[in-house]
Specification:
This protein is 82% helix and 0% strand. It is built from four helices and no strands.
Length: 113
């Protein structure tokens, strides 16, 4: 009997890539709205930028950078799956990619606080 797809070691990498893509797609309209404030209402932008000094916003920025890094490395993983022959080391590479994403976003977070 064949094992379910969720038992595959890279299933979590697939889910993480999908969730990060969805979260980034939800973030983009808010980002564009804030950027529009720079042109249409600079005073509102200034008050919003003061809000970004709050610790929870800094933590959310860490999450955003983590999602960006995870999505980037997930996309590279997909390219590797399409172009390279399968090997057992791909599981280790996927885990390493998440580790690098944590390192990148953690470095950003430490510089932000």
């Amino acid at each position: 009997m064949k094992a379910p797809a969720r038992a595959h070691p890279l299933w979590l990498a697939f889910v993480l890539h999908r969730v990060s893509g969805l979260a980034l797609a939800l973030f983009l309209p808010a980002h564009f709205w804030v950027l529009a404030k720079a042109v249409t209402a600079p005073d509102q932008l200034d008050s919003f930028l003061q809000l970004t000094e709050q610790p929870m916003v800094k933590l959310a920025e860490f999450g955003l950078v983590f999602l960006l890094a995870v999505h980037l490395f997930g996309g590279l993983r997909l390219l590797a799956l399409e172009w390279l022959p399968w090997s057992d080391t791909q599981k280790s590479l996927a885990a390493g990619a998440v580790g690098v994403a944590v390192l990148v976003s953690g470095t950003f977070f430490l510089n932000a606080i």
